[in-house]
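step 4 of 6: structure.
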Amino acid sequence: MPLDTSTYALAHLRLDGRRWNELRHLHAQISTQASSDGSSYLEQGNTKILCTVSGPQEQRRNAPGGRQQQAGAGSDTEAQIVVEMNLAAFSSTDRKKRARSDKRVQEMQFTIAEAFRGTLFTNLYPHSTITITLHVLSQDGSLLTACLNAATLALVDAGIPMSDYVSAVTVASAPSSDQSLDEVDPLLDLNGLEEQELPFMTVGTTAAGTGEGVEGEAKIMVLVMETKVQMGRLEAMLSVGVDGCRRVRGLLDDVVRTQGRRVMENKIS
Amino acid sequence: MAPYTNIPLSPAELSYLHTSLSQQPPIRPDGRSPTQFRPLIAETDILPSANGSARICFADGTEAVVGVKAEVEKSKTSQALSNNGEVAGQGVLGLGTGSGRDVDDEDMDGEGEERAGKGRDEWLEVAIEIPGMRDDDALPVFLSAMLMEALLADGGLKDRLWINSRFHWRLYIDVCQPYYYTISNSTILLLSQPLSYPLPLLSLTTHLALLATRLPALVSEKDEDPLFNDDWEASTYLYAHTSFQQKPPVTLLVMSVGDTILFDPSKEELAVADSALAISIAQSSTGELRMVALRTVDPPSRLTAAGVPNVLNTTTGATGAQSLSAAEVLAIREKDQGQSVWRPPRGGVRRALVARMIKMVVEKGGVGEEVMAGLGGVEM
């Protein structure tokens, strides 16, 4: 079976051949749709997310009941952030049409909105709404992670002022045959199979002190864990997660800078 | 008060567009020829978990992603199956099953005769997701019905889903449209007029996705429980890629302005259309194109507001306009017939014009062939 403890202990290689601290292949593009304010496409392994951002724009509709729960509802002093997530019916292995009121989806939407409420300068846009729409084309683990990363890129593309990127990653606790706390590796960036079998958490942070002029410590914006793990393993998982977020932030930053360079070249030539 | 419409063009602009498009040769706002399509980006096999997938992106930013997934399902055994798949009633959409008549698939070898006529309409499900709309709103339902109608019309697709007399493939075609520019969030639509702008985009993307769809290779024989080869490399294409092969249908939107026929109309061009048709075509294995479905579309131009003729316009100093009765005002407008100012089109479309539109699509070297060839050129 996939996470048979003995196989991991033998070669310390996961099913897809990665080691404990290796991220999946991350590929991202920014500004993929010229017609929206901000857009991005992000692939983390087989999880593919398309994100579009519109706003800040005039709050036109009276939010229906469901939206009242969304974060940032203080419309007099700051912009409201609305997140919409569409899981395509073909996104998972079995074809499944999602109902709009899926609780799991609603919770993820709320988490994402809360995370960005902490970094975006929403006080600059009172009485307006920033809408983040996420289309999940394919999911293979780390869904919330990929959504946060894709949304960060799209928000940067939309030009909405923010204090920093929100980069996220998942971390799990590797299975071990004995219950000792030593020699247990936290696994970074899980795929679908691993997520089903192992206790894991999603960590989203803003920049840590990378030494490139970014000062201060990393701030955790998102921390979601729905499974149980031994207390003693938590600290190791968290530190690996924060480090993983830093690496993801570097990758996202590269994407943004490449796009910036491309834009500058088009203007200058 | 004019009915609400989300076409932000004034009567003067509409009249200008209409006049430009009625010229011979027509002058389109973006300078295209009447049969020229806008540039698009198409790619297939973008979804690892779907049997087939495709994505098409138009130059104006609209894009659609289609994923095709297949599941094995137990067939309902009934006496009806022995009558070549015809059930009492006429298939799901009331179109008649019509299968088995025109299917000549040389690529299916001896199975061709076995399968012909065995397909059922309910084995195919098309679902469209448009952000901001519920699944039972008019537009998604209308679009998915139109797409399904075209796919089922020539009977070839559902016949390919037959495995044996007890099992069949159920095909789910899901369309995800990330950005749809004409939907405004504050809709107070007085008429639930579906705007069929995304139809050709969705149809082209569905066509590509179906061409790229692969089904696992069948290993079991005859009527036993189906068993498939685990090796994905051994899978077979739903539409085999040999040189003589039938292709899935494509729906094109064609509009007319006066005597001019235009293909791939943009939003502004549709706002002044006299008529609009959705023509579905299929290519048989001999390469011949055939029209399989035709649907008239009520163009949004009918929702636009008419301009006010100078004679009646008090702001330009027309005297006596206020003293005219309603009947006299109506008479003046009718006499004007939209010549001095814009008037929304009325009435239907001439049969000769419809015939011309169909001919332009279906003839050898016509638009239909160009579109099919273009799609066929996309790498799988």
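step 5 of 6: annotate
 - The domain at 11-307+342-376 of chain B is CATH 3.30.230.70 (Ribosomal Protein S5; domain 2).
 - Chain B has one domain: 11-307+342-376.
step 6 of 6: archive
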